[in-house]
């Protein structure tokens, strides 16, 4: 949460230059507080796991958050019980007349397909267009980030020779954006994907800003529309054993997967992985909720445009 200080205090200029969030008394008085409404489009196959991953991070905040879960209507998920879906999930048609403070669009196991070949691509496009004037800030994750960059800005994705799997070191390209407040100059985050977006395609687009990247894993965080769209190509929300489970699943399918990099001690899959990205994950989600949702959203949801 921000530091509230007197209007005109000289320290405010210094703190702002250091990318520390301060709030003057006059701004604080004008704020109203209510629960934030966040909708999650869960495209991951094992939905219960993703629910835990995301809700854990959303809960690590002083803010009260109300969550709606939605799934695709044009594709029936195969790895989650129908009873769970009917009890806890809505479809886009159920909520499209609503407005939300924030939205999360997850990854999906369809990245090796061309976007237009994905069975629910038309539905995704409709949802992405809807976010423009129904959501204050949308956080796109992994394939969700690639889909958003492609649909909104025409940024293509490219296949990679070997799956980008593991925990990789990242650097911050710019220190002036609130999404990376409190980040170390170098930090770790997991990735798990067969495709990538490239800086050479993103940099010429004036609406897009590359915030963070990795020498090994490539582009990581991209911002647009002053944070109303945030694209994160990795999986900071992953549990300690998620990459292990994915690796073992691919082994069982006879896929001969690469061992996730920088993950198992001594690159030995028989050893228990150590978590090295948890603090970054919590800070990423806390920054998004605070600075791009709570601080930017109107008190009256109907005023979102």
From TrEMBL:
Cited InterPro entries: Class_I_gatase-like (IPR029062), HST_MetA (IPR005697), MetA_family (IPR033752)
E.C. number(s) listed in UniProt: 2.3.1.31
Site (Important for acyl-CoA specificity): residue numbering on this chain: 111
Key words of the record: Acyltransferase, Amino-acid biosynthesis, Cytoplasm, Methionine biosynthesis, Transferase
Pathway where this protein functions: Amino-acid biosynthesis; L-methionine biosynthesis via de novo pathway; O-acetyl-L-homoserine from L-homoserine: step 1/1
Recorded catalytic activity of this chain's protein: L-homoserine + acetyl-CoA = O-acetyl-L-homoserine + CoA
Membership in a protein family: Belongs to the MetA family.
Protein's recorded name: Homoserine O-acetyltransferase
Species: Pontiella agarivorans
Lineage of producing organism: Bacteria, Pseudomonadati, Kiritimatiellota, Kiritimatiellia, Kiritimatiellales
